[in-house]
Specification:
Keywords: Membrane, Transmembrane, Transmembrane helix
Radius of gyration: 19 Å
Order of helices and strands: H
Number of domains: 1
Structural class: mainly alpha
Number of helices: 1
Shape: rod-shaped
Amino acid sequence: MVLGIQDQQVVFGIIGLLCLSVAISTIPKFEKKIATWLAAIKIPN
């Protein structure tokens, strides 16, 4: 069974959406780390 161009686009689209959903679910954790990291770096003048 050979995948057509449209079928490949659908498969890549599904994989892309899965990766995107995983990235979105992990963003809040990284945001907290980045926020604390920036707060540690930013010393009030």
